[in-house]
Request: fold
Amino acid sequence: MYDLLKGLRVVDVSAFVAGPTCGLYLAQMGAEVIRVDTVGGGPDFRRWPLTENGSSLYWEALNKSKKSVAIDLTRPEGRELVQRLAAAPGDDAGLFVTNFPVEGFLSYENLRKLREDLICVRVMGWADGSQGMDYTINSALGLPLMTGPVGDDKPVNHVLAAWDLLTGAYCAFGLVAALLARSRGAGGREIRCSLSDVGASTMANLGFMAETMFTGHQRPRMGNDIFGAFGRDFTTKDGQKLMLLCITPRQWSKALEALGIGGAVAEVEAALGVSFAKDEGLRFTHRDRLYPLFERAFAARTAAELAPAFDAGGVTWGAYQTLEAALEDPRLYKDNPVFSTIRHPSGLDYPAPGAMGTIPQDERRPAVAAAKLGQHTDQVLADVLGLSGVEIGRLHDAGVVAGPTS
Reply:
């Protein structure tokens, strides 16, 4: 947790991953992020994984550091409250994140009527407004047909919601960029950010698009091989799988030295009339000639023997490990200063990350747990909208808003 965005107030009316991630990143950099859910919780409030008491680990993880307000979004009076929260006055307010449809009560045109310089970041599935989620966008991009073992034609979905996460991060960037423009007199605006555009643009930025256009076909499956370079998993004498990556000339030469196969590789180079040290593409092109040499070298040594040799030479490598093992890895979870153990709304104590970036010049504060659903309803209605205790009580009695439940 840092204070770079301290003073900003962002209203987050979104569900699932992309929108809540945008709000999370802003909150972890110091913004006051007010998460609005419908009374009883939105569509992601009970999403798996769940604890034994039915609390969503997913929801409380994505909504750390945020305030929580519960409003009945099906009621006209509840919808009006949300509109007023989004458009509330203040130089550092009028910042709104949502994945609600372009049209409807949270449309940009409706919100602009309440605040002309409002900034709205809208997460969308497809850019044309049709419904799409990470897995359906990913399948349309062709990636599941590039992933998996050689020779298999079954699509392989990855478990990481990559397009959601990239979209959430881009939305946070877009909101801060729009705020900077507004501070320079450019006024407000709506930024529509779709998973489909983020996915298609990323594929183009990485060269996938142009490659397919000029070759006439998408990249074939390669198992665990790294495209265009020398990289793959190899099995050690004691059965452990290690990932080896050789992109730079130094990485390549140090790997050969640590494995003791420099002479054997030189014979392959002489036979082919090439220099693998000069061109990573050649290592990829002729990987079938090289793999047997590496396989035998790995199979002759244990992981305990290879690890210090690799580290001493600065070889780029990594061991495959389960998440259970990763939890004990000091570089990832155990002893990582990004994490702090806190009490969550589920009642459980476990480590949670704060800001993912580290600022050496600033003190890192511990992560802040998600609020209980509706925990800040009364405070936000009073502080942001200026409602009196009597008015807030009436809204509670009418079921338009709700406070925290045990």
Notes: The CA atoms of residues 354 and 367 lie 4 Å apart. The radius of gyration is 26 Å. The chain has two domains: 9-204+335-402, 241-319. The longest strand covers residues 32-37.
